[in-house]
Each structure stands twice: as structure tokens, then as C-alpha cells.
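Priority: medium. Attachment 1 of 2:
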């Protein structure tokens, strides 16, 4: 079956309790992706758990655990068809300990909604979320000012939040003037699909209308095929099914592929047997598609989250060492040589050591401020040398920008983010 519309991955990001899942749930319900019947069941379940009003959030919080805690833990996917796109919605957790899942979500997204609760406004994590989206290359951002019902739909409150968020956007190099701000209420359904009568003063698009206003994502189809593995399932009658997003290139049935680094670092070769997307069998899938596949010759023991399935003729490098440009976002003290935090690269998590701080640079111009600094502090941008303490697949930003970005995390916080510029391959 041919795909009628191009796919766009949209992530919803925001602080815990900003009401992201409710906005997404309401959007899916109003777009007809969830039936009245299903909604009724979820409403009863919400009441049973003593969580009245949580039914919309339950749509995305499929995981039992998140339901009982009322917190989004894992990434959830749902599909909406608009006039222009087939939209895959990714609802990313806002909780601190779930930021690593959020990184995975952001690294898959073409566009993003940053959800801010009108009563609370900007939260400490809002800046971190913005930096992550920025570093993960999400160019198109819209800010949804949610819970407008809780501030009596007052325009002054919306304007205030808009100003505060605007300052943060400027700080991460996003033009606030060109960013759409939407006044909405997920709980009451205001400005989700239809224009709300409660805010006559608001003249912008609804959440649903905004989906078609996002520009077309760059299609990296001409780059070599890369599919970072997000999860691996065992499915009866099919076998081992790795799931993930094809970042670049095109995958076809019968294509010879290599899984890298695999358990050994040498990788393992196979052939694409089946490709499935949203429960439909496909002959091929393109960059941007979220798929589940079965590879002849690759079993459960051969592949895990963090591996990259790539075209066998142009495999992704397994790196010995690499150079990168990083920005320090949130380090408790200072970042010095020898520091070994965990690097989150596409879907992989590998400890890596900073072996050299080459130069501190001006992020706006790229010119060197200081050669070989002793340490880096929050806000500094620098060229550094890094040595993975395990097998890691990575590409340079020049070769493949979609496979070059990473976040550095330590003790539950995002310390830095960056992109790879040069690679020394493993022998």
C-alpha cells in the first residue's frame, strides 16, 4: 500500500504537570483518532483511580505504571492524518528521571510543541527542554500555553508567559518573534482543534491547525540508510522485531544490512525480510518513518537498543575517538579533562571520557576564545576530544547531521549537548 501523505514526527515536550498528555489526548480525541467509546472507558478508569479529568492523558499513558502514578514515563506514539501530513505524535515525559527518554523522543522529532502551564509559567526545566530540542536539531517549535481555563482565559496572563518564554527562546538562539504561541486548555478542549469561544482576543491557530503550518521536514533520503534501534520485540510467528525510526536513507525489502556495533563491535550482517509501519506491511520505508522490521540472520541476541541498522555497503563507523563541539548546559561545578559521564547518542547510551579540552569558542562566530582551557563552566562552548568506554556508532555532522548529535548526562541531569565533528574509527 502506498503512503498517501508524507510523515512528520511531532514531539510534545514540557515540564511535568504542564498538561502535555492531556493536550495530546484531547487532540487525538477531537481528530477522531480515539473513539467516543474508548473515551468513555478511559473516563471510567480515571474515576476508578481517583483521577478525575485524567482521561485524556490516559490515551497516551498506555503504560499501566504511568496510569497509576499519573505521570508519563515512556514514549508513546499515535497517528493523526491532517490535510498535509501523516503525523506521528511523540509524547515525551517531563519528569526529571525520564529526561533520557525525552532525548530519544526529541532526536526523532521534526517539529515540537513546548507545553507551558499558564498558572505556573516558566519552570526550571523549561530551559533544559529548549536546549535539548535545539541540540537535537528540532528547528520548528511552537509554544502551547496550556491551562488557560485555570487563569480565567485572561489575555494578560498569556502575554506574560509569552514574554518570559520569549527571553528563554532568545537565549538558545530561537527567534521568539517568529515562534507561534497558542493559548489553549487541554482539559476543557479550548483551541485544540476548533477555535475557542472563551478567548475572543486570541487570533492565532489552534493546536491542530498548527500541525499543517509546520514547514516540511528535510528529507534525508539521499544519505546512507540508518535506523537506530529503539526497542527489540519477540513476536510470535515473525521472530525478532527491532523497532525504531529510519533517520536517513531508504530501507527496502531484500536490502543487505549490517547491525552495528552489535555485541562484539564487529557487527552482524543480514537481509531485510519484512517492514511494518502502523500495522501495515511495506515494500520500503523512508527517512522519517517509524517502523518495525524483521531481518533474516539477525536474532534476539544479535541486536539491542542503541545498535544501528545500516546499509551493508556504507556501514556507520564504530568510533575509537572523536572530536566534538559541545555546550555546557548544567554542570554542578566545572567540566574538566578525565570526566566520564554517559553520552546519549541516537538511541545508544555509552560512557565516554573527555580526553582533551581543545579550545573554548564563541558559539555565535566559532572563533577561539581560549586554547586548551583547564575547565569549562555552564554556558561555555568548546571543541573537545572524547573517547568512548564502549562500542559506539557515530557520524560527523558533515557526513550525516542526523547521526552526529548527542546529549551528555550525569546524575539525572543533562550536563552538556553537542555534535561530532571528526572521527577516528576503530581498527
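Attachment 2 of 2:
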Amino acid at each position: 500500500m502506498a503512503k498517501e501523505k508524507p510523515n512528520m514526527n511531532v514531539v510534545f515536550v514540557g515540564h511535568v504537570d504542564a498538561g502535555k498528555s492531556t493536550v495530546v489526548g484531547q487532540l487525538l480525541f477531537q481528530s477522531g483518532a480515539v473513539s467516543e467509546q474508548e473515551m468513555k472507558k478511559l473516563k471510567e478508569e480515571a474515576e476508578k483511580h481517583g483521577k478525575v479529568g485524567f482521561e485524556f492523558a490516559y490515551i497516551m499513558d498506555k503504560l499501566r505504571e504511568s496510569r497509576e502514578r499519573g505521570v508519563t514515563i515512556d514514549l508513546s506514539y499515535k497517528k493523526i492524518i491532517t490535510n498535509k501530513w501523516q503525523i506521528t505524535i511523540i509524547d515525551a515525559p517531563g519528569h526529571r528521571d525520564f529526561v533520557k527518554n525525552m532525548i530519544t523522543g526529541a532526536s526523532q522529532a521534526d517539529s515540537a510543541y513546548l507545553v507551558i502551564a499558564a498558572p505556573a509559567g516558566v519552570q526550571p526545566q523549561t530551559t533544559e527542554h529548549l536546549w535539548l530540542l535545539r541540540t537535537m536539531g528540532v528547528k520548528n517549535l511552537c509554544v502551547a500555553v496550556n491551562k488557560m481555563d485555570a487563569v480565567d482565559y485572561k489575555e494578560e496572563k498569556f502575554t506574560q508567559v509569552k514574554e518570559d518564554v520569549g527571553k528563554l527562546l532568545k537565549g538558545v538562539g530561537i527567534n521568539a518573534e517568529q515562534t507561534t504561541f497558542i493559548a489553549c486548555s487541554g482539559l476543557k478542549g479550548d483551541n485544540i482543534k476548533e477555535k475557542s469561544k472563551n478567548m475572543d482576543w486570541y487570533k492565532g491557530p489552534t493546536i491542530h491547525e498548527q500541525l499543517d503550518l509546520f514547514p516540511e521536514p528535510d528529507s534525508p533520503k539521499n544519505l546512507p540508510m540508518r535506523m537506530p534501534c529503539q526497542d527489540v520485540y519477540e513476536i510470535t510467528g515473525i521472530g525478532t522485531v527491532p523497532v525504531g525510526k529510519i533517520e536517513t536513507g531508504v530501507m527496502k525489502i531484500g536490502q543487505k544490512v549490517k547491525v552495528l556495533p552489535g555485541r562484539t563491535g564487529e557487527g552482524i550482517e543480514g537481509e531485510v525480510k519484512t517492514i511494518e509501519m502502523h500495522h501495515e506491511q511495506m515494500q520500503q520505508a523512508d527517512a522519517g518513518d517509524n517502523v518495525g522490521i524483521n531481518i533474516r540472520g539477525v536474532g534476539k541476541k544479535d541486536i539491542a537498543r542503541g545498535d544501528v541498522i545500516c546499509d551493508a555497503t556504507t556501514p556507520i563507523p564504530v568510533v575509537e575517538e572523536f572530536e566534538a563541539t559541545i555546550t555546557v548546559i548544567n554542570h554542578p561545578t566545572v567540566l574538566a579533562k578525565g570526566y566520564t559521564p554517559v553520552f546519549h547518542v541516537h538511541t545508544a547510551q555509552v560512557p565516554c571520557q573527555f580526553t582533551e579540552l581543545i579550545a573554548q569558542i564563541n558559539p555565535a562566530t566559532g572563533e577561539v576564545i581560549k586554547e586548551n582551557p583547564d575547565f569549562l563552566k555552564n554556558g561555555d562552548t568548546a571543541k573537545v576530544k572524547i573517547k568512548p568506554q564502549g562500542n559506539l556508532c557515530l557520524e560527523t555532522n558533515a557526513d550525516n547531521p542526523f547521526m552526529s548529535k548527542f546529549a551528555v548526562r550525569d546524575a539525572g541531569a543533562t550536563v552538556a549537548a553537542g555534535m561530532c565533528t571528526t572521527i577516528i574509527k576503530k581498527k
